[in-house]
Write a structure and sequence with these properties.
By secondary structure, the chain is mostly helical. The protein is built from two helices and no strands. It is elongated.
């Protein structure tokens, strides 16, 4: 069994970070990906 509350907190943090990075990229550079975004996703997925 896995407790869902800590997992949900991690996922919520990831989603907020990703959203913030993506909005900055779209506003400033009209891009969809960056090294920071790739690193965040790599850490979240764990691969």
């Amino acid at each position: 069994m896995i407790k869902g509350r800590p997992l949900k907190a991690i996922n919520t943090f990831y989603n907020k970070q990703r959203s913030c990075l993506q909005s900055k990229l779209q506003a400033n550079h009209n891009q969809s990906n960056s090294p920071k975004l790739k690193k965040l996703t790599h850490i979240h997925v764990g691969s």
